Amino acid sequence: MTNALGHNGRTGPILGYNKIRMNSDKTYKIVAGSDGFWGMTCVADHEFIAEEKQDATTLAEFAHARWHQKWKHDNTQQIVHNVMFPKDNIDDLCVAVALIKPLVL
Fold first, then answer.
1. What's the domain range around 74?
2. Cα 77-44-18 angle, rounded to 5 deg
3. What is the rounded CA–CA span in Å between residue 36 and residue 90?
């Protein structure tokens, strides 16, 4: 479920980023994060991540909660409910957010 441009070492083994066009005034929001962040996001989360009010702390807490939630796991033979990641498999995460506004001369 990774959305990191750095996935599979394309821009580096650890850090990926998404650049999201915000609005008609050409303001951009850039979200940089570790694979521990991007691994807990999916396409359905893009709108939430892109909201200008979602800062780095909020996004980190969002991903952290996902690492610790209960999941429905389909292993192709059965569906198992309430599956959690083993504590030794939970990845570190970091997130940085920047809003880039156009320079008006």
1. 7-100
2. 120
3. 8
Task: Tell me if residue 79 falls in helix, strand or coil.
Answer: strand
Whether the model clears a pTM of 0.85, i.e. scores above it, the answer is no
The residue with tokens 């690492």 is: 67
What is the Cβ-side half-sphere exposure of residue 32, based on CA atoms within 13 angstroms?
8
Report yes or no: 33 and 98 within 8 Å, Cβ to Cβ.
no
Report residue 26 as tokens.
């050409």
Would you say residue 2 lies in a domain? no
Task: Report the pLDDT value the prediction gives residue 76, as an integer from 0 to 100.
Answer: 87
Which one-letter DSSP state was computed for residue 50?
H
Q: What is the DSSP letter of 100?
A: E
